[in-house]
Design a protein that fits this description.
- By secondary structure, the protein is α/β, with parallel strands linked by helices.
- It contains nine helices and ten strands.
- Strands 5-4-1-6-7-9-8-10 form an eight-stranded mixed beta sheet, with helices on both faces. Strands 2-3 form a two-stranded antiparallel ribbon.
- Helix 8 links the parallel strand 6 and strand 7.
- The chain has a domain of about 200 residues: Rossmann fold.
- The structure holds S-adenosylmethionine.
- S-adenosylmethionine binds next to helix 1 and helix 7.
Length: about 290
């Protein structure tokens, strides 16, 4: 396990994933019923954008830092809410500075979107990141941090007693069979908890390579894709996507509004796509 999210925090992939995550939480907490959230690959919780890891890659500069500095004219509400959540996390460390410094990982964004009574389990397998995550939420009884394999925890905790849930699957894709592991986790999750909302991130390293192997069930699906195009640094990840199964009502609409704006403000040649399959349509097969 060599992956450290600190090298990538706030990059364009985080922007895509986290704009969607903040919106999913908002929509899923609109109903007056308890929500269960599982973050299977949670990372360290929060990141210092001027820390050594972030400075070494500079990836946040083509991601959150560019977006945070953008002219806000016409900014869609979902993007404004994401930036507000990021700024609120940064303010925990002191008054705002000229540039954003502290970036929230998925567990922090999830925590900020929860209501009293909602339940959140965050899993992290890397010992150092798990320790940082435990420290991040020390004393917070709304968050259960597990130093554990997120795929195993998914199997153990679904279906949740709340019967309403969001599962974020965001692995590092170091292992060659990671796509298959994600697909298995989705299949298993859907068998046990068919009405749950699942969001799974995937890298697109080569346009002809399979993206996410999706479950063979009929599910409602929204896929978000973000491609850096000319803005990509040579040899670095240039495109990625997020598959959202059973998205809440209005999610697709919010993303259709948000992502073109995000793409337009991330740089020249950046493009975003939103695809949707209604519940009655078969889910695209692997590589489709
Ligand atoms: N979700 C985080 C966010 O959006 O801020 C970023 C997560 S990062 C892409 C992937 C994380 O998964 C890494 O911190 C890695 O150590 C961890 N990891 C790898 N394999 C795991 C597993 N089987 N179970 C739980 N965590 C794992």
């Amino acid at each position: 396990m060599n992956y450290r999210h600190g090298f990538h925090a706030g990059n364009f992939a985080d922007v895509l994933k986290h704009v969607a995550l903040v919106e999913l939480l908002r929509l899923l907490t609109a109903k007056d019923k308890g929500l269960f959230v599982l973050d299977t690959h949670a990372g360290a919780g929060g990141y210092d954008l001027v820390g050594e890891q972030a400075r070494r890659t500079g990836e946040a500069e083509a991601g959150i830092l560019r977006l945070a500095a953008a002219d806000r004219t016409g900014m869609p509400p979902a993007v404004a809410r994401y930036l507000a959540a990021v700024a609120a996390y940064d303010r925990k460390f002191g008054p705002p500075q000229d540039a954003l410094r502290h970036y929230p990982g998925s567990p922090r964004l999830i925590r900020a979107g929860l209501r009293p009574g909602d339940r959140f389990v965050a899993c992290e397998l890397h010992p150092g990141a798990a320790l940082a995550l435990k420290r991040e939420f020390a004393g917070d009884r709304a968050v259960e941090v597990r130093h554990a394999d997120g795929y195993r925890v998914l199997k153990a905790l679904l279906p949740p007693p709340e019967r309403r849930g969001l599962v974020l699957i965001d692995p590092p894709f170091e292992a060659v069979d990671e796509l298959d592991r994600v697909a298995r986790a989705l299949r298993h999750g859907l068998r046990r908890f068919a009405t749950g909302c699942y969001a799974a991130w995937y890298p697109v390293k080569d346009a002809t390579a399979p993206t996410l192997a999706t479950p063979p069930q009929r599910t409602s699906l929204v896929t978000l894709d973000l491609k850096l195009g000319e803005a990509a640094a040579p040899g670095k990840l240039a495109a990625c996507g997020l598959t959202v199964i059973n998205p809440p009502w209005k999610f697709e609409e919010a993303m259709r509004e948000a992502l073109p704006w995000v793409a337009a403000h991330l740089g020249r040649g950046v493009s975003a796509m939103v695809h949707a399959s209604p519940a009655s349509a078969p889910v695209p097969a692997r590589g489709a």
